[in-house]
Amino acid sequence: MTRVYSNPDPAVAHLVRNAIDQIGVPAIVRNDGTTTLMELPTVATWAEVWVAAGDRMADVEEIVASVIADSGTPADPWSCDDCGEVVEGEIGACWSCGSPAPAEA
Fold first, then answer.
1. pLDDT tens digit sequence for 28-47
2. Which of 15, 33, 62, 71 is deepest in the core (most CB within 10 A)?
3. Which run of H or of E encompasses 22?
4. Number of structural domains in the chain
5. How many CB atoms lie within 10 A of CB 34?
């Protein structure tokens, strides 16, 4: 199984899963009932979409990109190159050290 998407809102993760299911690739959502725990980083509790797509992975990636573009969903979290902090995708600079997000984030 491969994780193809994560979001803090389980409803959005289920939207992505439903779109993947429509192309005939089985998908599941994990962590859709998990609450944020003080011991875990916030992104570790986000709802995740997992698939076993095999040779259809390109189709799955296309569907995920399409749903994200259509829903205005923020980009995936990124790791700061300077300090290693994980930053939410819609943030353009590291909250810890101020370094700018990588161009592809």
1. 999 887 555 556 666 677 88
2. 15
3. helix 10-22
4. 2
5. 14
